[in-house]
Amino acid sequence: MNIIVASVLSLTLVLLGVFVFRESWLRAWEACKDLGLSVAYYFCELFAVEHDIVPSVKEKSEIFLLDFGFADNGGQFWEDAKSYFLLFFNAENFNGYWGAVESGMLLFARVLTIAVPALVLLIILMRMMYRRPNVRHGKDTLPLKLFRNLMRYTYVPLKRWLVSFRDFLREYRWIRSCWLFVLAAHLNLVSIAVAFLAFYFYFAVSFDVVNVFVQLYKLVADLQVLFRTVPLWVLVFAVYPLFSRWRTRLARDRLRHFEARNCGFINELPIVSMACGSMGKKKTTLITDMVLSQEVMFRQKALSILQESDMKFPYFPWVSFEDELRACMEHGTVYNLASVKAWVALKRSRFIRHGNAQWQLYGYEVGRYGGEFDDALKVNGLFDVLETYAQAYFIYVLECSLIVSNYSIRTDNALIDAGNLPLWDLDFFPRVRRETNRRSHILDFDVLRLGKKVLENNPLAGSFEFGVVAITEIGKERGNMLELKEIKKGTSEANQKNDRFNSWLKMCRHSATVDHFPFIKVFVDEQRPESWGADARELADVIHIISSGKMHLALPFYTIEEMVSEWAFGRFMRLYEDFRFRRGDNTLLVYLLKSITAWLWRRNLRIYNRFGYCVLRLEKERGTMDGKYSRKRYFLMNAKIYAGRFSTDCFSDYFNDLARHSRRGLPDYLEYAFEKATVEELKAQNSYFINSLYGGNT
Question: Rounded to the nearest 5 degrees, what angle is found at the Cα of 46, between the Cα atoms of 41 and 48?
């Protein structure tokens, strides 16, 4: 079916070209001849070759001429422009304009005279009909049944076929490309493009400025086909997708600019940072957003180290080195940075012993290309650079998340591997949503403890080297001096005083440093900075969330569409609320209004989800709490942070489990009988204060 329709449409386009748009094709041929002469003229003039070529692009077209006056030279153009603007102050033109306005107003008044009473009568009848209450839950009225049956046998099959035909054209893109080219030729757009190129080559060596007016004349003449053939409303519908794509691109670029500013702020932070704010101030949202950005920056930094190492020994066969390293990673020989160093050290020792460059250096000629690089600070040996390259490559190609957290964080970065150097798609604002789904690693706190462990002989102990650590509610995990005063350091069990977690914080960069860059960041949050002990907190920068601004939209020129959506939603909801109160059945009018309103509302919601953002106003100070603040702004973009990244109620399952086992709910709570609580009602509160008033007796 799709092939038949495509064939019929193709034949139709061909016939239109023969019988309707034949002159457009003749004009295209004329423009091609102009282009050929202009190119020949361009090269002859450019290389000083004698010739007698006369570019035909200087002359008016013989195919399309204007049937109204249009200047083809500078003097006439300015005279016509002057005459045109003088018409604005011409009395006859002024009277004619207001006469046309008067005629239009009279016509509009006649329409209103008929339409307004009819509309009022319709509204009255609909109100009378829809105010009749019923409890026919889920039942369709007869008009709605007829409408749904009509849609089932007309709209639904048509939509299904259109979707299949769209998929057919996406699969065979060359058909769509041919159609677009032929249609552009029919409407004379191909001629305009070719004529522009012809004049470009001519003007590049002739600098014939005067001839620009001839080209304007030809452009207006060529556009006659488009504006006389295609109705204005069709042009509007055709231009809107282009306009929408343009403003969408602007919005994405703006969001990427905000992300770059966020990354600049994150780079200013030390290895440990703490976000603080009262409940609902988006502190966990903030650290999650920073964690996502930091993971991307680690990937980008690893790639940068690879590129710089490559330049130190530009003739080394890096791809062979990468192949062997990835094979070792797949076989489990290399599994962390320490094993990477050991692997390179083994290659170094074998090369020193045997000097076999073919096996250890993949045929690299040390004598010819050198085995050292002097960067004016120190001399870098080949194997030193290989060790750096291998560590950076290990970090770069790991397909798992680099995030370790005590709550789940979703990432969707995609590794694109064509068999050579893989590349990461790290854009938070792609045109098409990525299907990749990865979750952060579960944080076993034992891997961060240098002292005693909760799980004795934990197999993961000592394994953590690099990555992004995210800990929410750090104060509840680590406590402060007042909360820990009863805990003893010398006990046999692990606790906050003997697990040496703070020592790990102070030294964590040592295991994560590659080429002098620490591939580790720790982000934590808590309601109050004092909830975390000073020994650890003073290592961090404390970020206070002052306020969260209202939602903004990065998409330009959306105001009218948003106003229409909000107006329709507000008006319909008032009607729908009254309708739901009075009636339980489904009616045609409400069905149609709800369909239109839902389409507008969902479109508006998607726009805000894709291009909405809010601004957090922050104050940053050192963990020593010296009171010296620096004010910052941080951008939270919906498409990045709210795309199923994390759950704000990350510990809710604990409370769900309690509630599920209690077998009680809010309706089971006792209610007060009067405006003043009785003694029994006071005692039912199980309050420390009330119990103390009654001597501790309940």
Answer: 90
